[in-house]
Amino acid sequence: MKRVVFALIVVLMTAGIANADVVLTFQGLQNNEEILNYYNGGYGSGGSGPGPNYGIVFGSESLAVLSRSAGGSGNNYNQPSGSDMGLLFYPGGSGADIMNVAAGFTTGFSFYSSSQEGGTVTVYSGLNGTGTVLATLTVLTTPQGSTDGGNVTGYYSVWDPVGTTFSGTAESVDFSGAVAYADTFFDAVTLGSSTPNPVPLPATILLLGPGLVGLAAIRRRFKR
Q: What does each of the 224 residues of the chain score in pLDDT, given as a tens digit?
């Protein structure tokens, strides 16, 4: 009986991991640190890590920026995820403002954005912005936010939820259409859903709840 219960728990946990939405809030990184392989089980440019192994790699122009209210240099504030970190790209024309997901992801893509000029974010079927365009997301211009503690540190504090569904499997996201002059912050970047999830619950927990109820029922039957 114990072996059966253990096997079922393993199945439930594995299914939870496979079906979980991946939400990136950039916590665990340092101010102005290039994200690089942090979400590939590796490290950011400043040595932060190892991070979660989601198989996600960012180009060298992607930075995690800590808000000034938390002691950093960014004028990002009031992020929906509750994190003091925002994702910011400094465009250098090298095509390094792309997020690659080698294993691919399906269903949808979403995020929160705060932007002076707006723009677009494009989802591709291939790595490095190649293959078929699966979706194009429009980043809207957001108004200047309120000040934080009397200091103008919260210019990017009004956040717009952006998301879309798509068919097929995506392997990369190109942020270059919305990063001109580094005027857009991103938060709660969500893979697998058209709605950004600022406070994700692990899918293993969501599945283990009803799963354990089922296991209890199975155990009662074995006792009988």
A: 444 434 434 433 333 333 458 999 999 999 999 999 999 999 999 999 999 999 999 999 999 999 988 899 988 988 999 999 999 998 765 667 999 999 999 999 999 999 988 999 999 999 999 999 999 999 999 988 765 554 555 689 899 999 999 999 999 999 989 887 678 999 999 999 999 998 654 443 333 444 444 444 444 444 44
CATH of 22-200, one of 2.60.120, 3.40.1000, 2.60.40, 3.90.1070: 2.60.120
d(C-alpha 101, C-alpha 172), whole Å: 6
Cα angle value 201/79/172 (rounded, 5°): 70
String of DSSP letters for 157-178: ---EEEEEE-SS-EEEEE-GGG
